[in-house]
Amino acid sequence: MERRKVTFKLYPNAREAERLTGWVRLHCELYNAALHERIDAYRKFGLSIGYYEQQNVLPEIKAARPEFVELGSHALQQTLRKLDLAFQAFFRRVKAGQTPGFPRFKSHRRFAGFCYPDTAGWKLLQLGGRGATLRIGSGKHAMSIRARGKHRFGDGAKPNDLTITRVGDEWFASVTLRVSAHACAKVRTGEAHRGVDFGVNDWATFDNGETIENPRFVRKELPKLAALQRAQARKKKGSIRYKRLGAAVATLHEKISNMRKDFLHKKTTQMVRESVVLATEELRTKNMTRSAKGSIEEPGKRVKQKAGLNREILSAGLAMAHNMLSDKAVEAGTRLHIANTRKLKPSQRCAKCWAVVPKTLAQRTHVCLCGHVAPRDQNAASVVLIDAHTPGTGVAARPKPLPRPRRGTQRSKTRETPTTAAQAV
Ligand SMILES: [Zn+2]
């Protein structure tokens, strides 16, 4: 059994949304009250109250405040547990000599949501119609909230827990499912062996020279975001206009993040489906960002807008892409090879003769003494692919670093490909 999390957007009607909002308020109230109790007990009596003491009071609370009953006891416990985790994290960091912030009281507007740790009190239905339905609450007061889409794991998937979150005015339901390995397997459509290099100019370059362009948000939405942020910087901090622009920035960030996720999911799925072996290198966020400047011959466009945003947005996207690739590779039975960047130096090494050809980031073409000429990123993609076919290399295949080999002994043994040829020359 595997675990998969699926997130549905919910479409509650006005009355349902109001009820959900009320539930979030109650959970928030409980959280704050529990926090207050802990602080009070410590200040007045020097007592520290733990999770279980607080959990044991829940029945009394429900007796005094019947509106808490319909939230479900396990969901209420979960909110107390959330507070407990906040305290544990706080004390752990104090112990480690850091200076963490004390757990805070939360505004119900910012309270993220609530969680059902098991299947009591809700049900996910995927019957006819377009999307799933979330049935939540108990008895005749239960609500059936429409959700967008259905999950792909079929009837055999067993729901495990549910988290309801609110982002702005939108509601989401995240459900953890237990599914058979068979049900989450991805169908592989190709048998390719591919190396891929991620970059700023093109999002991805393959060893055969194919490229995937940067997604639309990089061209269209990022400049908008920069303009909004500049406009906000001109307003007085805390003013109504400042806040309004802040909200606009947040909305756009959300939009960009959705576009990025959509793009990454589609591309990584495609890459994994088409190949048996997929090779890339470790993340190196530092190198990623500098080439916005371009070179003298080919100066970058909108360098300033790009520099700061690129760093933030593209590097975040790359980490996400790497994670998606490793998850999806398992599902598709694709071998994902992550080359050791520092040892291999894919952007410097020649894919033909394996010699190291130093170049600056501005140099977009690999030109080697052996006569091999290729676009820089394509050459790097070829190098990582060769590395993938070389036994004993890569970092993903080998989570713990092996003891360091003695100089000169190991290298000639493991490399059957171009290295030995290069050393012989
Ligand atoms: Zn060469």
Topology overview:
Layout: E1 2-11, H1 14-45, H2 51-64, H3 73-95, E2 113-116, E3 122-125, E4 133-136, E5 143-147, E6 158-167, E7 170-179, E8 192-198, E9 204-206, E10 211-212, H4 216-234, H5 240-274, E11 275-281, H6 285-290, H7 303-332, E12 335-339, H8 341-344, E13 365-367, E14 373-375, H9 376-388, H10 410-414, H11 419-424
Parallel strand pairs: 8-11, 11-12
Antiparallel strand pairs: 1-5, 1-7, 2-6, 3-4, 4-5, 6-7, 8-9, 9-10, 13-14
Overview of this structure, please?
This protein is of the alpha+beta class and 425 residues long. It has eleven helices and 14 strands. It has a seven-stranded antiparallel beta sheet. Strands 10-9-8-11-12 form a five-stranded mixed beta sheet. A two-stranded antiparallel sheet has the order 13-14. Helix 2 (51-64) packs antiparallel against helix 3 (73-95), helix 4 packs antiparallel against helix 5 and helix 4 (216-234) crosses helix 7. The protein is globular, with a radius of gyration of 27 Å. The two termini are 53 Å apart.
Task: Write a compact overview of the structure shown.
This protein has 425 residues and is α+β, with helices and mostly antiparallel strands. 44% of the residues lie in helices and 18% in strands. The strands form three sheets. It has a seven-stranded antiparallel beta sheet with strand order 2-6-7-1-5-4-3.
